[in-house]
Amino acid sequence: MTAVLKLAGVTAGYAGVPAVRDLDLEVGEGEVVALLGPNGAGKTTTLLTAAGVIAPAAGTVTAYGKPLHRRVERNARAGLVLVPDTRGVFHGLTVRENLALARRADLGRVLELFPTLEPLLSRRCGLLSGGEQQTLAIAKALVSMPRILLIDELSMGLSPIAVQAILPTVRALADRLGVAVVLVEQHIDLALTVADRAVVLHHGRAVLAGSARRLRAQRHTVAEAYFGAS
Ligand code: ATP
């Protein structure tokens, strides 16, 4: 498998204080990699570095074999798209208007993947449920035809049922469109159901990595790594 996104020996942080240390992470076409770990483990920092928002203090980030551009928009235009945990939908606009704001929008294709949005097209986003808003945020990222999608805290503020409804869509993006996905997710079990591989971060370091299948079978090892008991 060729990595479309590759972080090699990445150390990154804020004002010279590392939040991620010596991290290796690879994602291939059509692959979903879950990034797990407790609060403050460095998950968001990893995504920001992978998107080119934060420049690494050491190590390299490459997309399609080339170093990231220093300007975030250039990376986004090349198909590297970050879905922030703040959702990024405009509450005063309707679902249709929000989707139209994304470049290269192909509404038909989006509705094919997210049929639950169709009856909501004329509704203002401020009136959507948390799950519907998150679906829209992912749909919005999708209409710009990403090749690499970095999704932060998909489940933030959502019920497990809402998360369960959205996760298969993420899987479909990878399977049907070949998108390479990095998924930050708090629900370990749900993440391991949808991901191909997972990496557990603790204090900025990868303390456990492996196939989702293996990690599901060794669930206690994941919990130990997660809580730093190992
Ligand atoms: P959470 O699940 O709580 O979002 P996380 O795993 O995404 O956590 P990060 O947000 O990457 O973790 O934070 C990693 C470390 O970097 C933490 O110690 C945090 O306090 C610190 N940090 C995050 N953002 C900033 C910032 N803008 N300035 C300074 N330090 C920051």
From TrEMBL:
Entry keywords, A to Z: Amino-acid transport, ATP-binding, Nucleotide-binding, Transport
Superkingdom of origin organism: Bacteria
TM region(s), chain numbering: none
Domain ABC transporter: 5-228
Signal peptide from the UniProt entry: none
SMART domains: AAA
GO MF: ATP binding
PANTHER family: HIGH-AFFINITY BRANCHED-CHAIN AMINO ACID TRANSPORT ATP-BINDING PROTEIN LIVF (PTHR43820:SF4)
Family under the similarity heading: Belongs to the ABC transporter superfamily.
Listed name of the protein: ABC transporter ATP-binding protein
